[in-house]
Input
Amino acid sequence: MLYRKIGAEIEAHLRSGDDKIMIVEGARQIGKSYIIREVGRRLYRNFVEVNFAKDDETNALFRNVRTLGDFYMALSMEAGGRLGDRDDTLVFLDEVQHYPQFLTLLKFMREEGRFAYIASGSMLGIALRSTTSIPVGSIVRRQMFQLDFEEWLIAAGWGREALAHVRDCYSRRVSLPEAMHDNLMGEFRKYLLVGGLPDAVNTYLQTHNIVRVREVHEAIRGMYKEDAAKYESESSKRLLVRRIYDMIVSQMENKKKRIMAKDVRGKTGDRFEWFAEEFEYLVSSGIALDVHAISNPRYPLSESVRKNLLKLYLNDVGLLTWRLYEYNIAPVMQDNRSTNLGAVYESVVAQELRAHGHELFYYDNQKNGEVDYLVSNASEQSVLPIEVKSGKDYTTHRALDRFLSNAEYNIPSAIVLDNDREVRTVGKITYMPVYFVMCIERVRPADGNFLF
Output
């Protein structure tokens, strides 16, 4: 059984007595249903699961439900004698976006409180477009991602004491012992090949066969592309969504790596805003990660976004290395400093930062160049720049140097992630191994600091 951090949050919510309904969101095939089942069956005597996508393909009991009365009737037909009361019955509404009217009904389910509820959705952002009444005060939305690197390490057999030691070294800015560093880099390279999609991880753990792992990647990529046909009614939009999704890998090999409007249809003069809905689909569905350009890096970063400059990354680094290297593991697994893994490293760092709660931005200045990532540090009301280096010239970073030297920006520190074992600070820059990205979490104040 794969350990998932969000399981503790789901359990805490269900045990808290909070009557708001949690919706776990995220791309398909990241393990939402699995972890909800695991927690729900452990906490409740009666666990009732209703998959709306499956319902639509079979008996369609819930397809035309519009009232609570109709819902309870359909639920009783589905669950029979497994329905008790709120204390012993959890109703899990899976793929809730498939029947958007249920997003409105959640409010009334909460108010009546007949059962405990939890829901999941893989296209919730898309479904909310057509929802007339969003039950804002009745739901708790939580984003879920595929396994991050720390969860991968747990799956690989790393214990809590070893992980705590890694985190302690990160916080104290000290290097790991050589043997531990080599072990971590080995696991990190495997993670680059397999990624964090649960089916791919389980297949790797069972077979250690890259061909079998890539079969999983191919199936999931096909599923993501087919999903566009379900949730975009216009055929022209479906084609553009698939075109942009396919473009992500090729754009990663360019120096600037950002999506250019003229490349979407191959027409000079096309404008970025013409494809806003297609970009929104890819991001809202969770199959792409968006990184927005910032030219004036002031906190909060979201207020300085340049809307027409956007980078997109695949949501899973395993899908990227499959497209780049197919079955050849040598470019990733061999410790060859001449191999340029820049696109791969940037992708996995984006994946990790997003999974840790960070909004993603990058610095773009025509005169000074680009810095890979900027993240907000709310506790210090400041900005943290992060540069990602995969080669031996990791101390060369002109754009970052110019960025830090600008007194108007008032940036206190920066991180360069690289392959070297040694952690060292030079001026404002701390160099550290790339696996320490697992420790760069969004800073949250202690509970006591919420009081005012």
